[in-house]
Amino acid sequence: MKYLDEYRDGAVARGIIARIKETATRPWTLMEVCGGQTHTIVRQGLDQLLEGAVEMIHGPGCPVCVTPLEQIDKALALAARPDVIFTSFGDMLRVPGSSCDLLQVRARGGTIRVVYSPLDALELAIKNPDRQVVFFAVGFETTAPANAMAVWRARQLNVPNFSILVSHVTVPPAMTAILDAPDNRVQGFLAAGHVCAVMGWKEYEPIAAKYRVPIIVTGFEPVDILEGMLMAVTQLEQGRHEVENQYVRSVQRDGTPPAQELVRTVFRLADRQWRGIGTIPGSGLTLREEYADFDAELRFGLGDIHAEEPAECRAGEVLRGMLKPSGCSAFGTRCTPEHPLGAPMVSSEGACAAYYNYARFRSPAGPTGVPS
């Protein structure tokens, strides 16, 4: 398949790995800010193949994982209401709240529908005028345009029984928070290609200049990621700190201006709490005042719901890149996909899930091959 098979070519991957090892005169520490990239790195053993040249640490790039426990509890409260049809993407259903998850609420009689688009949720609201339909709006800038479109369309069509539970976060403030931390180890970033397909990369340029770190916009296949690593290592070896685009087949510097304009029309920047990390100023999106009628948190009075993250779950350290999942004492024992302590173990983009699925049985000698 064009634009897929060639980015999984084993011979090409081996060649790039050799070039990275030839280029690196010392070990460099890079962070990917995308859960999909994390899964590719761990599944293909790219981190082990580059041991001694590049250490990959995994950042807060999983939108499900960074959604705080408090927000999950609000979703559970909404889903349990008899007057609500609660809609969500499927990857949120097994994320544990304080007492249960959305699947358990559905088993107890809650009306919960998995949808593939927020516009599907809006259509449900139109077809069920006697029920309140709430969509769980989770994600980075990637999903914000579609969620903004659903709200904008609901207003245009005058659909009063539709609302969204907003849990949007944005990437640049999280990167800045990581770089500002006193224990920061990140020397370069691989930026998520799908986020940049919407937003472009102009927002990253001041970060690269201020903190003197290369930022490489990178795709998601093994060759994409290896090329991104090579570009970052080359910059570090040359003493450069620029934003470069590896994902040229999908991303332009300006991104997608119409999508950005729609997001700005419906949402505004706000402080946002991140699971296990805390509040990052200006790191989230919330509905503008003129669209506040579609804010489920306001409509249903959820402001009094608060929750403390479980002390045993070290998701915050994993999401900040301070701890590899296998370094957590609960990993694979008290925390498994069947009985998770936190979202990173059950999300399809979670670092803990990646390590559980692909790295539990790694031998000390590392992998024996490369992607083929």
Care to describe what's here?
Helix 12 (222-238) links the parallel strand 8 and strand 9 (243-245). The chain has 372 residues and is α/β, with parallel strands linked by helices. It contains 16 helices and eleven strands. The protein is globular, with a radius of gyration of 21 Å.
Quickly describe the structure.
This protein has helices at residues 10-23, 35-44, 46-49, 63-66, 69-79, 102-107, 118-127, 144-157, 171-180, 193-199, 205-211, 222-238, 257-266, 296-299, 315-319, 351-358, and strands at 28-32, 54-58, 84-88, 111-114, 132-139, 162-168, 188-192, 215-218, 243-245, 267-274, 278-287. The chain has three domains: 5-62 and 171-245, Rossmann fold (3-Layer(aba) Sandwich); 64-168 and 255-299, Rossmann fold, CATH 3.40.50; 315-357, no CATH class. It has 372 residues and is an alpha/beta fold.
Radius of gyration from CA coordinates: 21 Å
SSE order, as H and E?
HEHHEHHEHEHEHEHEHHEHEHEEHHH
CATH superfamily annotation of the largest domain: HypD, alpha/beta domain 2
CATH topology of the largest domain: Rossmann fold
Oligomeric category: single chain
According to DSSP, the number of beta strands is 11
- The CATH architecture classification of the largest domain is 3-Layer(aba) Sandwich
